[in-house]
Amino acid sequence: MAGPIIRTEHLSRFFSTVKAVDDLSLEVPAGIVFGFLGPNGAGKTTTIHLLLGLLEPTQGQASVLGFDTRTQADEIRTRIGALLEFAGLYERMSAEDNLDLYGRISHMPAAERRARIKELLTHLDLWDRRKDPVGKWSRGMKQKLAVARALLHHPPLIFLDEPTAGFDPVAAATLRTDLASLVAREGVTVFLTTHNLTEAEKLCAQVGVIRQGKLLTVGNPDELRVRTGGPQAEIVGDGFNDQTLALLRERPEVANVALNNSHLTIELRGESKIGPLISLIVKSGGEVEEVRRGKASLEDVFLTLMEEENT
Amino acid sequence: MSDIWTMMWKESKDLLFQGGWRSLIRPLFVIGIMGIYLPLQLGPQWVDLTPLGMLLLLWIPFFVIISFIGDAIAGERERHTLETLLASRMPDRAILLGKIVATVVYAWGMGILSLLLGLILVDLLRTQGNWMFYPLDLFVDALVLSLLVGVLGASAGVLISLRVSTARQAQQILSVSTIVFVFGVTFVLRAVPANVFSSLNYSQFLLIVMAVIAVLDGILLGLSLVSFQRSRLILS
């Protein structure tokens, strides 16, 4: 479709005095993984509920795939896939039956259902366990099955609400890999909410940051790093003291300095040379063992945005 | 219609026949009592569809239904499957009616199967005379009444299940409601002057009873459909 696949204009949802989503205006282009970042209780899940037409907005409007969420919610729910806060699998039913149910709900013909279930379960290495009741599976396997369910009827857009929340790092990494490969293979647009910044950095072409219902910023992760964080240098060594920090802060190319144990992080203005700063540190009595140049991580960007909002 | 069928398929897989052979214990127990033990005890009397037979046919499917139906919505909410179902294209009516129809068919089917099994047993054990069948008018009355009472239990159960947060809570409220309902009906019937009953013949009386239950079914079904609001269910 031409234009954004999701568009919201001043979308708000209040629960008595709590502003769960507050004046959210957003456009998500088709064909990308869009990360919706925010701490717990930021309004991410409420936004998904609004976009699926499961909740009525208090103010504003939204459209998904060109359909209005207030008046055409059925059309939206017919065309999208969703993995919400919980996997939502019927644990007494087999994996195959769980997928078959949602294939039937989507009115897929029986032969197409069977072929598609085999294709997805094989791709996710779950085919051999298809007859098991899902209740006997590990959490990671269940979540993979729930992703397969969301993709079953070839939707152009899927919503994933914190798909790796509560997972150990290995299980989360495995699910992310499977998710990335499936999404690339299917060519589907993904609206992914998460508070896992590594996940967003690895999967998302564009991210929006939300806090207390308000959208703080939108852009691709690189843009956000430049806009919010800029280049930085990390210096590992010994003997760094208040005088070192004060001297560095006086330099025009230094935007900010932070000392954490033996790690000195210097945020730079533009692509400044690091050599003169190292000399300054050594002259002030510091011993430099290692210098690393790099960009701010998405986590730095996120934390900066949260701090700005607090102040 | 295909959506209702899909929900019935799901209910049969998820609730009624889950757990392999163990899921057969309940129906086999009910059919064993109703379709084997009682006919064997009563012999040819069973085929007369005495008040006892009629009462059993009415109440046993009803109790089977109320033992399941509280789980319909509240159970899905507890197991976190409701949100995903609500986010699908499945229409509200199909979700509700699919659950109600699946449970009623299951329990009603058990009743019919028991009646037929009892009939066959009694006929097989008789050594003389022609094959007997239930009095057709009583048999049809029993089937219709049993269906109406089943729909009543299922609609009331779904309505309660929509409004509470756990299946256990739904079950408790439904059990208490059933007792209150039975006592209420008894009280009302006792309050009606005796000459009202004596002025009615059997068919008229049955027709009035069926009409009253059908109206109650309609009201409870309507209330359930009105109460089924995705936004309210998502927030609860």
Primary descriptors:
heterodimer, A: 311 residues, alpha/beta, Rossmann fold, Alpha-Beta Plaits, 2 domains, six-stranded mixed sheet, four-stranded antiparallel sheet, 11 helices, 29% strand, B: 236 residues, mainly alpha
What does the model show?
The complex is a heterodimer of chains A (311) and B (236). Chain A is of the alpha/beta class and 311 residues long. Helix content of chain A is 38%, strand content 29%. Chain A is built from 11 helices and 14 strands. The longest helix of chain A is centred in the middle third of the chain and has 18 residues, at 169-186. The two termini of chain B are 28 Å apart. Chain B is globular, with a radius of gyration of 20 Å. The model of chain B has no long low-confidence stretch (mean pLDDT 86). The interface between A and B is medium-sized, with 30 and 27 residues.
Domains counted in the coordinates of chain A: how many? 2
Q: Hey, roughly how much beta strand do the residues of chain B contain?
A: under 5%
Largest sheet of chain A: 6 strands, mixed
Shape of chain B: globular
Distance between the termini of chain A: 41 Å
Mean pLDDT score of chain B, rounded?
86
How large is the count of helical segments of chain A?
11
- Overall structural class of chain A, as computed from helix and strand content, comes to alpha/beta
Order of helices and strands of chain B: HHHHHHHHHHH
Distance between the termini of chain B: 28 Å
* Count of strand segments of chain B: 0
Backbone CA Rg of chain B: 20 Å
Helix-strand sequence of chain A: EEEHEEHEHHHEHEHEEHEHEEHEH
State the helical fraction of chain A. Answer: 25-40%
